[in-house]
Amino acid sequence: MIAYTTIGTNDMARASAFYDALLAEVGAGRAMDMGRLIAYAAGEGQPMFAICVPFDEKEATPGNGTMIALAAENPAAVDRLYAKALELGGTDEGAPGVRADMFYISYVRDLDGNKINFFCPAE
């Protein structure tokens, strides 16, 4: 149902370096690079995750209550993505663990403060 999501950045070079390295962990790479917008995908026809400089040229800010959930293959992948995000300068918003007795999830904020979670079914 979702074709793509977009989050804003105030520093495209810094954000793209963060997401190039982070999303490579799940086999995703740049599917589109338009300078002010870079979209990532794990394959042709797959949903995309994009970073962009806001079109209105105002400061990019994270939305209160906004979060992007990125699917991981298994709990080990959630752990790996969480650790990689922190290694790249992201900040902890919730260490990996089982939530609601059905999901294994971790939460981070990227370099612009956008909240991202990595999740899979709990094993």
Task: Report on this structure.
- By secondary structure, the chain is of the alpha/beta class.
- Helix content is 21%, strand content 39%.
- The protein is built from two helices and eight strands; from the N terminus they run E-H-E-E-E-E-H-E-E-E.
- It has helices spanning 12-24, 75-87; strands at residues 4-8, 29-33, 37-41, 48-52, 67-71, 91-99, 103-109, 115-121.
- The strands form two sheets. Strands 1-4-3-2 form a four-stranded mixed β-sheet, with helices on one face. The chain has a four-stranded mixed β-sheet with strand order 5-8-7-6, with helices on one face.
- The model has no long low-confidence stretch (mean pLDDT 96).
Topology readout:
Layout: E1 4-8, H1 12-24, E2 29-33, E3 37-41, E4 48-52, E5 67-71, H2 75-87, E6 91-99, E7 103-109, E8 115-121
Parallel strand pairs: 1-4, 5-8
Antiparallel strand pairs: 2-3, 3-4, 6-7, 7-8
Radius of gyration computed on alpha carbons: 14 Å
Number of strands: 8
How many angstroms separate the termini? Answer: 26 Å
Shape by Cα distribution: globular
Order of helices and strands: EHEEEEHEEE
**Within the largest sheet, what's the order of strands?**
1-4-3-2
Return the average pLDDT rounded to an integer: 96
Structural class label:
alpha/beta
Which tags fit this structure?
four-stranded mixed sheet; 123 residues; alpha/beta; 2 helices; 8 strands
Quick rundown:
This protein is an alpha/beta fold and 123 residues long.
